[in-house]
Amino acid sequence: YQRSVHGGPGEELSPRSKNLGEQPTSLRLTVVEACGLMPRDVLSKKSDPYVVMGVGNNAAMYKTKVQKRNLDPQWNETFRLRVAPEENELVFNIYDHDLLGSDDFLGQASHPLAARRDETSTLTLFPRENRAEDVRANKKVGGDMGTLTIRLEWSE
Predict the structure, then answer these.
(1) CA distances (Å), 143 to each of 42, 64, 122, 137, in order?
(2) Taking the CB of the first residue and of the last residue of the chain, which one, N or C, has fewer CB atoms within 10 A?
(3) Which residues contact 43 (CB under 8 A, 6 or more apart)?
(4) How far apart are CA 35 and CA 122, in angstroms?
(5) Rounded mean pLDDT, 3-20
(6) CA nearest to 65, candidates 57, 56, 74
């Protein structure tokens, strides 16, 4: 993962844009917060969420820090991405960090990049497609997996 917290270095070309003749656009992506996440830790009735994100098929390029025991985490972490002209979607996956075993999935969201405008958006989290365990978890919480708020700032 690449990490660029609060606007630090870490600017990377996505793998698909490295071989293009066209100039990628710079995106400053801030993962602001999530609200109403599912509790996945049995004892604490909380989660230890973090976000994994990327552009299009490279959906695991960047990762936030883990927020301990929190269903409404505030990250306010900023990442610098280089986005090629043909890349049209940001993908976000939220997980609950576990010390033992694999991390639990909390929700997924995507945001279209076609407009290329500065904005703050609140995205609804959904289960992953074709994953029975996600559908069951979603039903347990009445279909509400929470939201993720992001901020996009574009430059050449």
Answers:
(1) 20, 25, 17, 9
(2) C
(3) none
(4) 10
(5) 40
(6) 74
According to DSSP, residue 68 is labeled S
Which two tokens mark 49? 């969420």
> What is the tens place of the pLDDT at every residue in 44-93?
889 999 999 999 777 778 999 999 999 999 999 999 998 888 888 999 99
Nearest-Å Rg of the Cα atoms of the chain is: 16
Work out whether the CA dihedral 29, 32, 35, 40 comes out positive or negative: positive
- Give the other-Cβ count within 10 Å of 105's Cβ: 19
Mean pLDDT of the chain: 82
pTM, entire model: 0.80
Q: For 39-47, what is the mean pLDDT?
A: 86
Strands 58-63 and 12-13: unpaired
Q: How many whole angstroms separate alpha carbon 71 and alpha carbon 105?
A: 13
